[in-house]
Design a protein that fits this description.
It catalyses: L-seryl-[protein] + ATP = O-phospho-L-seryl-[protein] + ADP + H(+); L-threonyl-[protein] + ATP = O-phospho-L-threonyl-[protein] + ADP + H(+). This is non-specific serine/threonine protein kinase. Keywords: ATP-binding, Kinase, Manganese, Nucleotide-binding, Serine/threonine-protein kinase, Transferase. This protein has 431 residues and is an alpha+beta fold. It has three domains: 95 residues, Phosphorylase Kinase, domain 1, CATH 3.30.200.20; 178 residues, Orthogonal Bundle (Transferase(Phosphotransferase), domain 1), CATH 1.10.510.10; 101 residues, Kinase associated domain 1, KA1 (TATA-Binding Protein), CATH 3.30.310.80. The chain is 34% helix and 21% strand. The protein is built from 15 helices and 17 strands. The chain has a six-stranded antiparallel sheet. A five-stranded antiparallel sheet has the order 13-17-16-15-14, with helices on one face. A two-stranded antiparallel ribbon has the order 7-10. The longest helix is centred in the N-terminal third of the chain and has 20 residues. The protein is elongated, with a radius of gyration of 24 Å. It starts with 11 loop residues before the first strand and ends in an 8-residue tail after the last helix.
Length: 431
Amino acid sequence: MPDNEIVDGDNALFGKYELGKLLGCGAFAKVFHARDRRSGQSVAVKVLNKKKLLANPNLANNIKREISIMRRLSHPNIVKLHEVMATKAKIFFAMEFVKGGELFNKISKHGRLTEDLCVRYFQQLISAVGYCHARGVYHRDLKPENLLIDENGNLKVSDFGLSALTDQIRPDGLLHTLCGTPAYVAPEILSKKGYEGAKVDVWSCGIVLFVLAAGFLPFNDPNLMTMYKKIYKGEYKCPRWISPDLKRFISRLLDNNPQTRITIDEILKDPWFVKGGFKPIKFHDQIVPDSENQKAESESVVMVKSLNAFDLISFSSGLDLSGLLATNSVGESERFLSEKSPEKLAEEIESFARVEKLRMKKKKEEEFGFEMEGQNGKFVIGVYISRLNDLLVVVEVRRRGGDADCYKEMWNNKFKLQLLRVCDQTPNADI
């Protein structure tokens, strides 16, 4: 069970989540079924051992990346991360509970699926993957074990621990980290010359579709190097029961040449993919329905310009990822929300700096970023102002150097109070 210090007498985590049975257990984490006391809904709570994470820098980075990525994703076919909490010893993820379990178990139990069911799951998978790509997120480990099925029979993509963001792309325009599950890895990853995240995800989607329709892997061999050779050459055989249209479609997904491999946009227009009807989910930042169609289309529109709950949570200083994985976090990074413009906020903060005789230095790489040095260099404060969405602006303050006690004295006695006034509200941690 999680720490006794944060579980009350009613077995509720932080007074919010009533913990139930253990759902799964690994080397670094346990997953519990729980009930959210506020809403009554079921959630899954993942409990991670912070000490073990800190002993494994790669795993710690994966966890931080997964949280960072999941906070920006809001899609009906992606598992939702509701909240992150922490104590000195553990980190807790409160996530959407997906009752049906892994798609892998469904295949293991029933063997191959009907082609109609393959279409249904694959449409939902591509909807989620296309959404991620449009937001600069590349999963890189798509497989049936990471695809969950809810109680309504809908697919949910999970496990973004190996995902990449556009800021990881090198100057050559490619990703270079070798990752993924051997049987699902794209041939260009094996070449070790770099690869495009979107193209390797499409390849993995092709493997998933083949497994759904055939009941076995297209590339498989007890000898790993033999299997890799088959992948690199694109050598596989479709079983006789797969329809000609599906064979043709799979061949475009499992094209071993990434330059000619089918793209997400082309998938959305393919005759096999759209059979039985496909209604793409429309997002507010991509498609704005006109007044005549707005009523008819409103049910399929997801408002992504507005903040979801985790957007707010993730900007809380108490849940800053560096703080979650640190052993001595003392509140040296704080974030505030404001409805004022970045220009106005910068002007008022600069005014405060002049009054306190803090030396200002503009950060060239940041439009609204600067450092304030005080007491002849005894402390340095970094201030970064950026627009979060159409309505809200976030102000982040970090201690950049100098004496921690001098910084805390200035922060607690003057600067924090000034920022509360400037931003017209309290820090996110109190939301």
